[in-house]
Amino acid sequence: MMRLLVLAALALVAYRLLVGRWPWEKRLSVKERALVKARRLLGLASNADRAEVITAHRRKLAMVHPDRGGSGAGVHEANEARDLLLAQLPHPTNHDPKEPS
Q1: Which of 24, 48, 60, 89 could form a disulfide with 44 if both were Cys (CB 3.0 to 4.6 A apart)?
Q2: CA 19, 4, 15 angle in degrees (round to 5)?
Q3: What is the pTM of this model?
């Protein structure tokens, strides 16, 4: 019985190494994986709004800017993450309800 458990554990670890995820993890699309990576880079939750994305992006830029010892690649990565996250949010309406149409 113990041998069977060890073999099962080894099979799970081998699966993880080959496929890159555990068998019970949900398979994410390429777009979903990019969004998860962008949120992780900026330190945001999945329900972050537009203002939170912009604030987190500014905070990240302050850390990775070349003038502060960072690199241009870090700036580009932060900008791409911001653009990706903002693109998937609903666009704000600029319509003021007090103005006549």
Answers
A1: 48
A2: 0
A3: 0.65
